[in-house]
Amino acid sequence: MTIELHTPISEDSVSKLSVGDIVYISGYILCGRDAVLPKIVRMIRDGTAKKLGVDLSGQVVFHTAVSPAGVGPTSSNKLEIESSIEPLSKAGVKLHLGKGELHKETVEALNRYNSVYAVIPPITALLESKTSERKVIAFQELGMEALHMIKVDRYPAIIGVAHGRSIYE
Protein backbone atom coordinates (compact mmCIF):
# COMPACT_ATOMS: atom_id res chain seq x y z
CA MET A 1 0.00 0.00 0.00
CA THR A 2 1.21 3.56 -0.70
CA ILE A 3 0.57 6.13 2.03
CA GLU A 4 1.17 9.89 2.23
CA LEU A 5 2.41 10.99 5.68
CA HIS A 6 2.64 14.60 6.86
CA THR A 7 4.48 15.69 9.97
CA PRO A 8 3.69 15.66 12.78
CA ILE A 9 2.49 12.07 12.43
CA SER A 10 -0.52 11.05 14.51
CA GLU A 11 -0.86 7.94 16.66
CA ASP A 12 -3.73 6.85 14.41
CA SER A 13 -1.64 7.17 11.24
CA VAL A 14 1.13 5.03 12.74
CA SER A 15 -1.31 2.39 13.94
CA LYS A 16 -2.48 1.88 10.34
CA LEU A 17 1.01 1.27 8.89
CA SER A 18 2.18 -2.23 8.00
CA VAL A 19 5.53 -3.77 7.16
CA GLY A 20 6.12 -3.31 3.42
CA ASP A 21 3.96 -0.20 3.04
CA ILE A 22 5.52 2.46 0.84
CA VAL A 23 5.30 5.88 2.46
CA TYR A 24 5.95 9.38 1.20
CA ILE A 25 6.89 11.74 4.03
CA SER A 26 6.32 15.49 3.78
CA GLY A 27 6.85 18.28 6.28
CA TYR A 28 9.58 19.08 8.78
CA ILE A 29 11.73 16.20 10.06
CA LEU A 30 14.72 15.95 12.39
CA CYS A 31 18.08 14.60 11.21
CA GLY A 32 20.69 13.09 13.50
CA ARG A 33 23.09 10.20 13.82
CA ASP A 34 25.80 8.75 16.09
CA ALA A 35 27.22 12.02 17.44
CA VAL A 36 23.97 13.80 18.33
CA LEU A 37 21.30 11.18 19.11
CA PRO A 38 22.91 10.10 22.42
CA LYS A 39 22.95 13.79 23.45
CA ILE A 40 19.22 14.07 22.72
CA VAL A 41 18.55 10.91 24.76
CA ARG A 42 20.49 12.41 27.72
CA MET A 43 18.36 15.57 27.42
CA ILE A 44 15.17 13.47 27.46
CA ARG A 45 16.38 11.58 30.54
CA ASP A 46 17.40 14.70 32.47
CA GLY A 47 14.23 16.61 31.51
CA THR A 48 15.92 19.30 29.40
CA ALA A 49 14.74 18.21 25.93
CA LYS A 50 12.40 21.23 25.76
CA LYS A 51 15.57 23.35 25.35
CA LEU A 52 15.78 21.94 21.81
CA GLY A 53 12.83 24.16 20.92
CA VAL A 54 11.09 21.37 19.01
CA ASP A 55 8.27 19.06 20.10
CA LEU A 56 9.26 15.39 19.67
CA SER A 57 5.60 14.26 19.62
CA GLY A 58 4.69 12.98 16.17
CA GLN A 59 8.19 13.70 14.90
CA VAL A 60 10.29 11.83 12.34
CA VAL A 61 14.01 11.24 12.99
CA PHE A 62 16.13 10.53 9.90
CA HIS A 63 19.43 8.76 10.71
CA THR A 64 21.65 10.97 8.57
CA ALA A 65 24.08 13.85 8.58
CA VAL A 66 23.20 17.01 6.65
CA SER A 67 25.98 18.17 4.36
CA PRO A 68 26.19 20.45 1.32
CA ALA A 69 26.22 17.28 -0.79
CA GLY A 70 22.79 16.27 0.54
CA VAL A 71 21.39 13.66 2.89
CA GLY A 72 21.46 9.88 2.75
CA PRO A 73 20.70 7.19 5.31
CA THR A 74 23.31 5.83 7.67
CA SER A 75 23.12 2.42 9.34
CA SER A 76 20.45 2.54 12.01
CA ASN A 77 21.85 -0.52 13.80
CA LYS A 78 24.99 1.32 14.97
CA LEU A 79 24.99 1.16 18.79
CA GLU A 80 24.70 4.94 19.28
CA ILE A 81 21.76 5.18 16.88
CA GLU A 82 19.81 2.00 17.66
CA SER A 83 20.07 2.61 21.42
CA SER A 84 18.36 6.01 20.88
CA ILE A 85 15.30 4.53 19.17
CA GLU A 86 13.48 3.35 22.31
CA PRO A 87 13.88 6.55 24.37
CA LEU A 88 13.03 8.74 21.37
CA SER A 89 9.93 6.64 20.68
CA LYS A 90 8.91 6.89 24.33
CA ALA A 91 9.34 10.69 24.03
CA GLY A 92 6.88 10.77 21.11
CA VAL A 93 8.90 10.17 17.94
CA LYS A 94 6.62 8.19 15.62
CA LEU A 95 8.89 7.28 12.71
CA HIS A 96 12.61 6.52 12.50
CA LEU A 97 14.24 6.57 9.03
CA GLY A 98 17.47 4.80 8.18
CA LYS A 99 18.85 1.60 6.76
CA GLY A 100 19.68 -1.85 8.07
CA GLU A 101 18.15 -4.53 10.24
CA LEU A 102 17.22 -3.69 13.84
CA HIS A 103 17.57 -6.02 16.83
CA LYS A 104 14.52 -7.87 18.18
CA GLU A 105 14.55 -5.73 21.35
CA THR A 106 14.30 -2.57 19.25
CA VAL A 107 11.44 -4.05 17.21
CA GLU A 108 9.62 -4.77 20.50
CA ALA A 109 10.31 -1.25 21.81
CA LEU A 110 8.91 0.34 18.64
CA ASN A 111 5.77 -1.74 19.09
CA ARG A 112 5.47 -0.74 22.76
CA TYR A 113 5.44 2.99 21.87
CA ASN A 114 3.39 2.77 18.64
CA SER A 115 6.36 3.91 16.59
CA VAL A 116 7.70 2.52 13.32
CA TYR A 117 10.99 2.25 11.45
CA ALA A 118 11.23 2.82 7.71
CA VAL A 119 14.13 1.98 5.45
CA ILE A 120 15.06 4.60 2.95
CA PRO A 121 17.14 3.76 -0.10
CA PRO A 122 20.60 5.38 -0.29
CA ILE A 123 19.60 7.83 -3.02
CA THR A 124 21.21 11.10 -1.96
CA ALA A 125 20.61 12.99 -5.21
CA LEU A 126 16.87 12.22 -5.20
CA LEU A 127 16.51 13.18 -1.53
CA GLU A 128 18.42 16.43 -2.08
CA SER A 129 15.92 17.40 -4.79
CA LYS A 130 13.08 16.85 -2.28
CA THR A 131 14.68 18.94 0.52
CA SER A 132 13.73 22.61 0.54
CA GLU A 133 14.94 23.97 3.90
CA ARG A 134 17.70 23.21 6.42
CA LYS A 135 18.26 24.57 9.90
CA VAL A 136 20.59 23.58 12.75
CA ILE A 137 18.46 22.98 15.86
CA ALA A 138 21.17 22.04 18.39
CA PHE A 139 24.84 21.13 18.81
CA GLN A 140 26.11 23.30 15.95
CA GLU A 141 29.68 22.40 16.95
CA LEU A 142 29.10 18.92 15.49
CA GLY A 143 28.87 20.38 11.97
CA MET A 144 27.01 18.10 9.58
CA GLU A 145 26.31 15.71 12.50
CA ALA A 146 24.47 18.39 14.53
CA LEU A 147 20.73 18.04 15.10
CA HIS A 148 19.11 19.51 12.00
CA MET A 149 15.54 20.11 10.95
CA ILE A 150 14.82 19.91 7.25
CA LYS A 151 11.68 20.43 5.21
CA VAL A 152 10.95 17.55 2.85
CA ASP A 153 8.48 16.87 0.10
CA ARG A 154 7.45 13.26 -0.50
CA TYR A 155 10.55 11.47 0.82
CA PRO A 156 10.14 7.84 -0.25
CA ALA A 157 10.57 5.04 2.31
CA ILE A 158 9.38 1.50 3.03
CA ILE A 159 8.04 0.56 6.47
CA GLY A 160 10.60 -1.94 7.77
CA VAL A 161 9.30 -2.43 11.34
CA ALA A 162 5.72 -2.00 12.56
CA HIS A 163 3.64 -3.50 15.35
CA GLY A 164 6.23 -6.08 16.43
CA ARG A 165 7.04 -7.29 12.90
CA SER A 166 10.18 -6.71 10.84
CA ILE A 167 10.67 -6.82 7.08
CA TYR A 168 13.92 -8.71 7.85
CA GLU A 169 12.13 -11.73 9.39
Structural features, described:
- The protein is built from 5 helices and 8 strands; from the N terminus they run βαβαβαβαβαβββ.
- By secondary structure, it is of the alpha/beta class.
- It has one domain (2-166): Alpha-Beta Barrel (fumarase), CATH 3.20.130.
- Strands 2-3-4-5-7 form a 5-stranded mixed beta barrel.
- Helix 2 runs parallel beside helix 3.
- The protein is globular and about 40 Å long.
- The model has no long low-confidence stretch (mean pLDDT 94).
The dominant shape is: globular
Percentage of residues in strands: 25-35%
How many β strands by DSSP?
A: 8
CATH superfamily caption: Fe-S hydro-lyase, tartrate dehydratase beta-type, catalytic domain
CATH class category name: Alpha Beta
Low-confidence stretches: none
- State the share of residues found in helices, binned by percent: 10-25%
CATH domain fold name: fumarase
Query: How many discrete domains?
Result: 1
